[in-house]
Amino acid sequence: SSTVVWFRRDLRVTDHPALLEAAGRADRALGLFVLDPRLLEASGQPRVEFLHRCLRTLDEKLGGRLMIAVGDPVDVVPRVARSVGAESVHVSADFGPYGRERDEAVGEKVELVRVGSPYAVAPGRVLKNDGTPYRVFTPFSRAWREHGWRAPANTNKSTVDWMTPEKTERLPEGDGLPDVTRLWRTFRDERLPDYADHRDRPDLDRTSRFSAFLKWGVVHPRTLLADLGSDEGSKAFRNELAWREFYADVLWHNPSSARENLDKRFDRIHLDDDRERFAAWCEGRTGYPFVDAGMRQLLAEGWMHNRVRMVVASFLVKDLHLPWWWGARHFMRHLVDGDLASNQHNWQWAAGSGTDAAPYFRIFNPVTQGEKFDPDGTYVRRYVPELRDVKGKQVHRPTDPIVDHAHERQEALARFGAIK
Ligand code: FAD
């Protein structure tokens, strides 16, 4: 008998429960990935290129037998299943708003067997005693740890006999991924011990940079969690993974929060719509060096350090008074790790409209944030070439700023005061 393994956000073959399930059910499987134009449209070039790298590596792991198809999965998946005589299609469950709808539609045409998810604990599982979802991170993370997760799935035990597809789309020539296991071990051994102290320092750049791998499921968070201990670095890292799980949970319970304020009071806040200021922010020309360095890092690398993401997001919302979703869209277009749940909810956190939001009156000062987290100015000099000759923390002084922070801070407080 044959089956189809439809890969989506689980582009790996180790610690993959859906793969085990497929291997247990059928003799042979066709590995399929569908390039969905609707999803590709929302992704910028860096993310699409990263996806191609993931797919090249997955294809290699399947012995060159990954089938890539283009089109609406609701049509493509059942058609491919029929063409190989498969009775079922195996997937890791998707919990995002678009994925859930898509899977329901596919499931009406072919048996869709969902096993596992991109999370250690599937969204919706961690609930308060009264059965309602958590809206605050710290109690969620405690309950999440207490809930616990499965040990990594030993996929080596039953290997899948992959079928050769009759036809497949060809990806552009290019590289695959580096060895993710090796990258993880290097991080674990060399950087995790100091992670708690260093994770907020963009100049040191000591975070794992695993976000894009996690986004595409090249590695499952469970695999990483199983490798963590009880030291401070491990605790801090586990806590970051918990944020990822928390935001997926919040989005699952509130699908419309991908587009709308979670806190409805914010629907009434007065916002500006100055496109020129927005363009200056996007291009890293605000005159605030720490902000500009972050925005230029995003354009250059498709990634930005978390501390700087928080500062640039705050700047867009509280110094420029622009809608958070403008910033979120720009991020989604340029980030290689762009992920709806993490992105929209970190943005809502910055805007004050989300769950567990930063109190609105706590407004990041882009200059002192730079001085604190990039004390020698190394990070700014790395991304803002015109400031390369400015020594030390002097580099954080604004040059021709597009707005005055002290003034805009008062303005933000007044606008918030009006809706409170
Ligand atoms: P590490 O410090 O090594 O953290 C390990 C992992 O924990 C990360 O890979 C990520 O999966 C998770 N994590 C860490 N911080 C957070 C967080 N605040 N929220 C959710 N998960 C977290 N992360 C994304 O993966 N995709 C996004 O689209 C995204 N958009 C963001 C937008 C804004 C405005 C902000 C403030 C943060 C955003 N983040 C997003 C969260 C965070 O900035 C990145 O996950 C992190 O910088 C990735 O780098 P790293 O893998 O080296 O992180």
From TrEMBL:
<keyword id="KW-0456">Lyase</keyword>
<keyword id="KW-0157">Chromophore</keyword>
<dbReference type="InterPro" id="IPR036155">
    <property type="entry name" value="Crypto/Photolyase_N_sf"/>
</dbReference>
<keyword id="KW-0274">FAD</keyword>
<feature type="binding site">
    <location>
        <begin position="240"/>
        <end position="247"/>
    </location>
    <ligand>
        <name>FAD</name>
    </ligand>
</feature>
<keyword id="KW-0285">Flavoprotein</keyword>
<protein>
    <submittedName>
        <fullName>Deoxyribodipyrimidine photo-lyase</fullName>
        <ecNumber>4.1.99.3</ecNumber>
    </submittedName>
</protein>
<dbReference type="Pfam" id="PF03441">
    <property type="entry name" value="FAD_binding_7"/>
</dbReference>
<feature type="binding site">
    <location>
        <position position="237"/>
    </location>
    <ligand>
        <name>FAD</name>
    </ligand>
</feature>
<dbReference type="GO" id="GO:0009416">
    <property type="term" value="P:response to light stimulus"/>
</dbReference>
<dbReference type="GO" id="GO:0003677">
    <property type="term" value="F:DNA binding"/>
</dbReference>
<dbReference type="InterPro" id="IPR002081">
    <property type="entry name" value="Cryptochrome/DNA_photolyase_1"/>
</dbReference>
<dbReference type="InterPro" id="IPR036134">
    <property type="entry name" value="Crypto/Photolyase_FAD-like_sf"/>
</dbReference>
<dbReference type="GO" id="GO:0071949">
    <property type="term" value="F:FAD binding"/>
</dbReference>
<feature type="binding site">
    <location>
        <begin position="207"/>
        <end position="211"/>
    </location>
    <ligand>
        <name>FAD</name>
    </ligand>
</feature>
<dbReference type="InterPro" id="IPR014729">
    <property type="entry name" value="Rossmann-like_a/b/a_fold"/>
</dbReference>
<feature type="binding site">
    <location>
        <begin position="337"/>
        <end position="339"/>
    </location>
    <ligand>
        <name>FAD</name>
    </ligand>
</feature>
<dbReference type="InterPro" id="IPR006050">
    <property type="entry name" value="DNA_photolyase_N"/>
</dbReference>
<comment type="similarity">
    <text>Belongs to the DNA photolyase family.</text>
</comment>
<feature type="domain" description="Photolyase/cryptochrome alpha/beta">
    <location>
        <begin position="1"/>
        <end position="120"/>
    </location>
</feature>
<dbReference type="GO" id="GO:0003904">
    <property type="term" value="F:deoxyribodipyrimidine photo-lyase activity"/>
</dbReference>
<dbReference type="Pfam" id="PF00875">
    <property type="entry name" value="DNA_photolyase"/>
</dbReference>
<dbReference type="InterPro" id="IPR005101">
    <property type="entry name" value="Cryptochr/Photolyase_FAD-bd"/>
</dbReference>
<feature type="binding site">
    <location>
        <position position="195"/>
    </location>
    <ligand>
        <name>FAD</name>
    </ligand>
</feature>
